[in-house]
């Protein structure tokens, strides 16, 4: 598995699993039924942001987007979002993308990473981020309308990058 910068020709290959994950309604509050062109702006980042793909040969297993969480005086904190193609889950792509984002943010000089809205019912993601050192620093109650669990919380998760990288 290789992580590389996403290029424009990757978008039509990312879009099908982006659209599927958004339509499932379990992890992202993006608008549903976005066309290929409409959805591009929700995922393909422009500098200072960055979008990457995890690939196995020509197959895109997943993708991550990253950049500053806020502009100006908040730009020392990174943020990121992740999607793994449902056909390729449970093979480590999410973990490898997460490690890549942590390394990128540390190398780019960010002081921390903040995830603003991790669905508390997404136990796979919550467990992964905790295993990579993130802490849940708060939960916004009933902020996400989950199709199976109803109104659930959104975790704010944070990783201190100023600590040693060991």
List key phrases describing it.
166 residues; seven-stranded mixed sheet; single chain; alpha+beta; 28% helix; Aminopeptidase
Describe the structure.
This protein has 166 residues and is α+β, with helices and mostly antiparallel strands. It has one domain (2-160): Gcn5-related N-acetyltransferase (GNAT) (Aminopeptidase). Helix content is 28%, strand content 36%. Strand 3 and strand 4 (77-84) form a beta hairpin.
Topology:
Layout lengths: L1 E4 L5 H14 L11 H8 L6 E7 L2 E10 L8 E8 L8 H15 L4 E8 L3 H9 L3 E12 L3 E11 L6
Parallel strand pairs: 4-5
Antiparallel strand pairs: 1-2, 2-3, 3-4, 5-7, 6-7
What's this model, at a glance?
The chain is of the alpha+beta class and 166 residues long. 28% of the residues lie in helices and 36% in strands.
Low-confidence stretches: none
Q: At the fourth CATH level, what is the homologous superfamily?
A: Gcn5-related N-acetyltransferase (GNAT)
Strand line-up in the sheet with most strands: 1-2-3-4-5-7-6
Helices and strands: which structural class? alpha+beta
Per DSSP E runs of 2 or more residues, the count of β-strands stands at 7
Euclidean distance between termini CA atoms: 23 Å
The appropriate CATH architecture is: 3-Layer(aba) Sandwich
Helix share bin: 25-40%
- The CATH topology is Aminopeptidase
Alpha plus pi helix count? 4
**Beta strand %:** 35-45%
């Amino acid at each position: 598995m290789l992580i590389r910068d996403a290029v424009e020709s990757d978008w039509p290959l990312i879009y099908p699993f982006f659209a599927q994950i958004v339509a499932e309604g379990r992890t992202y509050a993006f608008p549903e039924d976005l066309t290929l062109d409409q959805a591009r702006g929700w995922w393909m980042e422009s500098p200072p942001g960055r979008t990457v793909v995890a690939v196995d040969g020509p197959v895109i297993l997943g993708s991550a987007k990253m950049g500053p969480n806020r502009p100006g005086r908040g730009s020392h904190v990174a943020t990121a979002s992740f999607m793994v193609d449902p056909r390729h889950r449970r093979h480590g792509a999410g973990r490898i993308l997460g490690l890549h984002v942590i390394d990128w943010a540390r190398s780019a000089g960010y002081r921390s990473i903040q995830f603003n809205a991790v669905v508390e019912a997404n136990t796979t993601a919550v467990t992964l981020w905790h295993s990579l050192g993130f802490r849940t620093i708060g939960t916004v109650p009933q902020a996400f309308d989950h199709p199976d669990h109803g109104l659930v919380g959104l975790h704010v998760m944070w990783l201190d990058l100023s600590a040693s990288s060991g």
